[in-house]
Amino acid sequence: MPIFHNTKKIHSNLSIIFISYFSYRQINYKFEIIHPFQDENGRVGRLIIFKECLANNIVPLIIDEQLKLFYYRGLQEWNNIKEYLMDTCLTAQDNYKSVLYYFEIEYK
Fold it and tell me: How far apart are CA 12 and CA 56, in angstroms?
């Protein structure tokens, strides 16, 4: 039996743990803080969060230009005031929901 015979199941379980054990906000913050790449860490981090939200039937979020500075403040202040990033992410999620509503796409 191959070692990776259940990769889809493993990925599914890891995704559930990924979202349920850590909030996507904490994951985003932790990714940003380790700064694994010389450039584009923010975009990669937000892309990972977007993908994991979709994989777990969570309405994703997109940080647009209007929320960008609030998002940066939230990352910077995460250890002191978690609500900054949480509120920004929830606002971005609400914005995404309004797009889904406009195109009559159902969501949970």
Answer: 9
| Token pair in block for residue 104 | 């009559």
> If you ran DSSP here, which 8-state letter would residue 24 be given?
H
What are the start-end ranges of the H helices in the chain? 7-21, 24-34, 41-55, 68-76, 82-102
Cα 70 from Cα 29, distance rounded (Å): 14
What residues contact residue 54 under an 8 Å CB cut-off, 6+ apart? 60
* pTM, rounded to two decimals: 0.68
State both tokens at 25.
């906000």
Over the stretch 57-93, which tens digit does the pLDDT of each residue have?
Answer: 888 889 999 999 998 898 889 889 988 988 998 899 9
CA distances to 6, 14, 23, 43, 91 from 10, in Å: 6, 6, 20, 26, 32
In 3D space, the residue among 70, 19, 17 whose CA is nearest the CA of residue 48 turns out to be 19
